[in-house]
Amino acid sequence: MSATIHPMSVVDPAARLGEGVIVGPFCTVGPQVTLEDGVELISHVAVAGVTSIGARTKVYPFASIGHPPQDLKYKGEPSILTIGADCVIREGVTMNPGTEGGGMKTVIGDRGLFLANSHVGHDSIIGSNVIFSNNVMCAGHVTVGDFVIVSGGTGLHQFIRVGDHAFIGGGAGVMHDVIPFGMVRDNPAHLAGLNLVGLKRRGFSREQIHELRRAYRLLFADEGTLSERVEDVAGEFASHPLIHEILDFIRSGGERAICVPHDVNAPDR
Asked: Which entry of 98, 102, 119, 122 is annotated as an active-site residue?
């Protein structure tokens, strides 16, 4: 079926609307917006800029999607925001497009859940199957991997990276990169072990989890430097791809340091 637009909404005739799109009351949709098949804007949603929302994504009231980034260096360049399929974007969420200083795009993957009043800043790259709980504050230039859970009230500092399957505890202030499968908490955040609950829920085997825990203890022991321990672990776990995801993440580096435990002798949780 064709798109259904409530008479009390304003949709620019140049906007591209797929089959089965529903635009509820009091929404505004700009001329450069694309709503893929089955997208639903429930009510009071404002979508602007060069923004694409993927199929079957549902957006709740008072979300602001694609409006100019909150960056004083932004000069009106035609940057983009791309949101994947099957996402749920709850009340008051804000998502901004990119800037010239960050690659000109903000990208959000498929099947994301963004709870009320969470924010995705300019030039951020967010993976698939992520959960941003209420009031998550994601600054610009942040990279978040797949299957990441960010608990409520968390702040993600600009330019940090969060690896796949990581878990961020509520109210954390994350200033440094979080390794894949890692769990961090507190403000300022520190590494508090591996996301064991998430690993079990997602079907990782007992052996895989055991090897990850063993590698974690070696990586964050108190002997030698981190770079030396990375190479030691790489040699000992040469045939373990999950562990090499962590090692590759650390080796690739970024603008921020790696988040480490407060007590390197403490066991992972």
From this structure: 122
Catalytic residue among 54, 98, 102, 140: 140
- Residues facing 119 on adjacent strands: 94, 137
How far is the C-alpha of 37 from the C-alpha of 42, rounded, in Å? 15
Are 208 and 142 in contact by the 8 Å Cβ rule? The answer is no
114-173: per-residue pLDDT in tens? 999 999 999 999 999 999 999 999 999 999 999 999 999 999 999 999 999 999 999 999
190-194 and 182-185 beta bridge pairing: antiparallel
Q: Specify whether 122 is catalytic.
A: yes
Residue 140 annotated among the catalytic residues of the structure: yes
**DSSP letter assigned to residue 195:** -
pLDDT number for residue 243: 97
Instruction: Select which of 49, 98, 121, 123 is catalytic.
Output: 123
> Nearest-CA neighbor of 47 among 60, 25, 63?
63
> Torsion angle of alpha carbons 164, 80, 38, 143, nearest 10°?
10
Sheet of strand 161-162, all strands in order from the earlier edge strand to the far edge = 16-17, 34-35, 50-53, 80-83, 105-108, 125-126, 143-144, 161-162
State phi, psi for 102 to the nearest 5 degrees: -140, 20
Q: Which amino acid is at 106?
A: T
